[in-house]
Design the sequence.
C-alpha cells in the first residue's frame, strides 16, 4: 500500500484499514440492462456494518420508533405500510430536544459518523463541492407487504447524495431512467429504456449520486425466489426492511 495516500483514505472505522467492506463491490450492481450512457453512479458496499453495529443501530431505531404507527400511504403515494422517523445524533439535536442518554446512543452515533466518513471519502472525486452538509438521517421501517414504488427524491429538499443502510431483510433496488414527471429538469431524457439493479443484502450500504440521483428513479422490487446476478442464482426474500437514509443539504 502506498505511503503517500492521505490517511483519511486509508482509515476505515476504528483501527480498521481498507477492508473489503469499505470499497464498493461491482458484483452487487447489475448493468446487464443498463442504458448505454449510464454513468455508474450507484454503488453497493456489502457487509459495510458488522453484525454488532447492525444490532446496535436496530436497537436505537426501534426504541425511537416505538410509539409510531404504520402508515397505509395514500392511494397515489410512493410508499405504503411503513413508518418513518428523523434520526438525529446527539450533535444534531438542539438542547430543547431530549435524546435518551442510555449508552446505545453513542454506538449509534459512531456508526452514523463512520458511514458519513466513508461516503465523504468515496464521493469526494465525484462531487463539485468540497464540504458535505449532512441532513439528519431518516429511518424507514417498511413492513413485509409494504411497497416503495419508483420515485426521484425531491430536488427541493435534498442535495446530490442519497445513501442507505439496509437492515432486517435483503432486497433489490431498481433504477430506471426517470420520465419528466419527477422534476422540472429539462435535460431529462424521456423514453429511455433499460434499468440498473442493486442487490442490497442486510448490513450493506448503497449510494446514489450523479445520474442515479437526478436522472433515474429508484424503487424496491418484491421478493425473488431466483434472481440472476452476474450468472449466479440468488434468492431474495424481501421481508420487513429497515433502512437508514443519508442525504445532504442543497
Ligand atoms: C426514500 C427511499 C429507500 C430505502 O425514502 O426516498 O427511496 O432504501 N428509500 O429505504
Ligand atoms: Mn427515495
Sequence:
Amino acid at each position: 500500500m502506498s505511503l503517500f495516500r492521505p490517511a483519511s483514505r486509508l482509515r476505515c472505522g476504528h483501527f480498521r484499514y481498507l477492508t473489503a467492506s469499505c470499497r464498493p463491490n461491482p458484483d452487487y450492481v447489475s448493468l446487464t440492462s443498463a442504458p448505454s450512457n449510464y454513468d455508474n453512479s450507484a454503488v453497493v458496499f456489502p457487509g459495510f456494518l458488522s453484525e454488532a453495529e447492525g444490532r446496535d443501530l436496530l436497537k436505537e431505531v426501534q426504541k425511537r420508533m416505538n410509539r409510531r404507527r404504520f402508515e397505509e400511504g395514500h392511494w397515489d403515494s410512493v410508499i405504503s405500510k411503513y413508518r418513518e422517523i428523523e434520526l438525529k445524533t446527539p450533535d444534531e439535536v438542539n438542547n430543547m430536544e431530549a435524546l435518551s442518554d442510555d449508552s446505545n446512543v453513542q454506538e449509534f452515533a459512531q456508526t452514523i459518523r463512520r458511514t458519513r466518513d466513508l461516503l465523504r471519502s468515496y464521493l469526494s472525486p465525484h462531487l463539485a463541492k468540497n464540504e458535505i452538509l449532512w441532513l439528519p438521517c431518516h429511518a424507514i421501517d417498511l413492513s413485509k407487504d409494504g411497497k416503495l414504488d419508483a420515485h426521484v427524491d425531491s430536488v427541493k429538499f435534498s442535495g446530490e447524495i442519497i445513501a442507505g443502510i439496509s437492515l432486517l431483510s435483503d432486497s433489490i433496488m431498481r433504477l430506471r431512467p426517470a420520465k419528466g414527471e419527477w422534476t422540472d429538469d429539462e435535460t431529462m431524457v424521456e423514453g429511455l429504456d433499460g434499468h440498473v439493479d442493486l442487490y442490497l443484502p442486510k448490513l450493506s450500504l448503497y449510494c446514489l449520486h450523479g445520474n442515479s440521483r437526478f436522472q433515474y428513479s429508484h424503487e424496491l422490487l418484491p421478493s425473488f425466489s431466483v434472481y440472476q446476478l452476474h450468472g449466479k442464482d440468488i434468492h431474495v426474500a424481501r421481508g420487513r426492511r429497515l433502512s437508514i437514509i443519508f442525504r445532504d443539504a442543497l
About this structure: The helical segments are 7-10, 51-65, 104-123, 210-214. Residues 54 and 203 are 6 Å apart (CA to CA).
